[in-house]
Amino acid sequence: MAVTMVPPFIRTFKCIFMCLFVTFALACLISFSVLQSTVEEICKCPLSEKLSPPIDSSHLLGVIVPFRDRFEELLEFAPHMVKFLAEQHVSHKIYVINQVDQYRFNRASLINIGYKIATAEGCDYIAMHDVDLLPLNPQLSYRYPTAGLFHVASPEYHPRYHYNNFAGGILIIKKEDYKRVNGMSNKYWGWGLEDDEFFVRLKEASLDISRPTNLSTGIENTFRHVHDRVWRKRDMAKCFNQKEVTRRRDRQTGLQDVEYKIRSKHQLTVDGAAVTVINAELRCNRTLTPWCLCSEEKKKETSERRQGKAR
Ligand SMILES: *[C@@H]1O[C@H](CO)[C@@H](O)[C@H](O)[C@H]1NC(C)=O
Ligand SMILES: *[C@@H]1O[C@H](CO)[C@@H](O)[C@H](O)[C@H]1NC(C)=O
C-alpha cells in the first residue's frame, strides 16, 4: 500500500506546503479584490463627477459666427463660448465665417455658408450667433431643441432689441428646419432686416419658436452686448431700391443659391478655445442686388442733384 509507505516527515511537509499554498492563494484573492475595488473607486469617482450629465454626443452643435473686422470681439467670444458650452455639456464646433470680398457685409449669406460647412462636418443643429452677444446666464440652453427652434436672444432679455418679431442675435435651429425654409435670403447687403425676413420664413413654414422664460436674470445681466465702437456708415446705408426690396419676403434666394468661394480655412486657438476661421468671398449679382455696393450710387445721386440744381 503506497500511502502507508510514505514516510511521516514527507506527509507533514506536504501538509505544511498545502497550508502555505492555500493561505497564499487566499491572500492573493483578497488583496486582488481589495485592489480592484479601490481601483474602481478611484476611477469611478472623478469620472462620474465630471460626466454627470455626460456630454451629449448624440448631437453636434455648429456655432456659426458671421464676421468681419471684429478681431478683439472674437478674442473674447471664443474662450467665453467654449467654457459656457462645456458647462452645458454641449458638443460643438465654432465656425467664424469671415467675409473677405469688397462688398458690404452680408450676414445672411455668411450664415448660409456656415451652415453648409458645419453640416458637412457632422453638425445636426446650428446656432446663428452674433460675435458681440455673449450669454451670461447658464439657464440659457444651447442643447438640441426637441421641438421647433430656440431663440436664445429673446427680446425679453436682449439688452437692445425688444420687439416681438426679433429673431436675431442668437438663434438655434435644427439642420432640417434651416434647409426646409431654404436658409436665409442672400439679398441683404449691409446691416439689418435679414433676420426679420428669416422670421417670416419660419412663420410661413409653421415652425415653432420658443424662447427662454422665467430666467433669474434681466435685461442687464442675461447677456453681455459688446457695443459697436465703430459706426459703419458703409454698412448702414441704403441705396438703389434696397429699401423696397428688403421689406418684402424673398422667395428667390437662400441656402440653395448662395454664391461664394472659400479662399482659405484656418484652425485657431484663442486661450485654448478652438475655432475654425473660414475666409469666404461672396459673389454679388449686380443686376439682382446692385446695393451690394452703395458708394457708386451715392456719388451718382449727388452728381445728379448737382446737375439738377445747375439746370
Ligand atoms: C419661475 O421661477 C421661480 C423661481 O426661480 C419658480 O419658483 C417658479 O416655479 C418658476 N415658474 C415657472 C413657470 O417655471
Ligand atoms: C443676375 O440676375 C439676373 C436677374 O435675376 C439674371 O438674369 C442673370 O442671369 C444673373 N447673372 C448672373 C451672372 O448670374
TrEMBL record:
Belongs to the glycosyltransferase 7 family. Keywords: Glycoprotein, Glycosyltransferase, Manganese, Membrane, Metal-binding, Signal-anchor, Transferase, Transmembrane, Transmembrane helix. It is a single-pass type II membrane protein. This is Beta-1,4-N-acetylgalactosaminyltransferase. It comes from the Eukaryota. It comes from Nesidiocoris tenuis. Its EC number is 2.4.1.-. Pathway: Protein modification; protein glycosylation. Residues 57-143 form the Galactosyltransferase N-terminal domain. It is an enzyme of class 2 (transferase). The keyword Transport does not apply. Its cofactor is Mn(2+). It holds the Pfam family Glyco_transf_7C. It is found in: Membrane.
